[in-house]
Amino acid sequence: MKKIDRLDISQLRIFQALLRERNASRVASQVGLTQQAVSDQLRKLRDIFEDRLFIRKSNGMIPTPLAEVLGKKVDTVLKDIERLLSPDSFDPALVKATYVISASDYAQQIVLPDLLKIIRQTAPGLKIIIRDLDIDNLDELMVECRVNLAIAFPDFIPSSYSYITLFTEHHVCIASKKSSLLKRKLKLKEIASHPQIIASPVRANFKGSIDAWLQKSGITRNVVVSAPCFSSVPSYIEATDAIAFLPSRVFLNDNLTTVELAENPPVFDIIAAWHSRSDQDPLHNWIVGLLKQQYNIP
Questions:
Q1: pTM across the whole model
Q2: Which residues of the chain have pLDDT under 50?
Q3: Positive or negative CA dihedral for 81, 85, 88, 89?
Q4: Beta strands in 133-170 (DSSP E)
Q5: Which fold is adopted by the domain 3-85?
Q6: Which of 73, 167, 169, 242 can bridge 195 by disulfide, Cβ–Cβ 3.0-4.6 Å?
Q7: Which CATH homologous superfamily contains domain 171-265?
Q8: Domain with CATH 3.40.190.10 in the chain
Q9: Quick one: how far is CA 79 from the chain centroid?
Q10: Residues 254, 183: Cα–Cα separation, whole Å
C-alpha cells in the first residue's frame, strides 16, 4: 500500500494541532478524542513519515526538524482542501470562459439582444456562442456540455430539465395594411382559406404551432409558404397577399398590421432551460440570474 493511501485528513488535523499545542492531552480535548486515540494517530504518522515527529518531555512534547518542515506543508494542504470545499466567489468581470446558448429563432430576436447587452457590459471576457435550436439532438448536446442553456418554447425542451419561465406570449394574425381582411372582426373559419405563411424553424413543413389549436375546431388553414425563421415572414407578408400567425413580440414593419379576430389563440410560455449538471455552476447561475432580473422573476 502506498503511503498516501494510509494518510487521511483527520491525521493531518491532529498533526497540525500537536505542532500548535505541543501537548497530546490538550489536543485530545480539542478534537473530541481520547488521549489514547491521539497517540494511536501519532503512531500511524510516525510510521508513514518514518520519523518520531514529536519527542515527549516532562511537560509535553517537542517537534523534530522533519515535523517543523512538514508543518508548513500540512498547513498549505489543509487550506487547499478547505478552498476545495468552499465555493469560489464569482466576479463576472474576471470571467474568461465560453458559454453556449441554443435558442429558437424567436428567442434570438426577442430574448438574446438584451441579455447579450448586459453580458458584454459586465463580463467582457466571456465569449458567447449562439446556436440555432436543434430539438432532435438538444438532450445529447446538453448532456455532452456542448450547450449550456436553451431558450425556446416548452414543447422543444426535455421535460426533465430545470427551467424558468421568462414570459407568456400569444400569437396574433398579421397582414398587410392593404389587406381586404382588415374591415371587420373575423372568425377563424373566414380566414382559413386565405393564403398563409408559417415560420417552421425546426422542421421544413407546412405545420406550425397554431395548427393543433385550429384543428380542435375542425379548421385546416391554407398554408402556401413555409419559412425557416420568424424574421423573414414580415417581408414575405408585405410582398404577397398572405397572412401569418406570429408571436406578438416579433418585430413588424410599418406596412403591416394585426387582423382583428373573434377568437384569439391560446397563450404559451417562453422558457430558459438547462441540464441539472449546471445547477451548481456559478457562471451558469449568474446568467440565469440576469434573465430573472430582465423579466422580473423572483
A1: 0.71
A2: none
A3: negative
A4: 149-152, 162-169
A5: Arc Repressor Mutant, subunit A (1.10.10)
A6: 242
A7: Periplasmic binding protein-like II (3.40.190.10)
A8: 92-168+269-294, 171-265
A9: 30
A10: 18
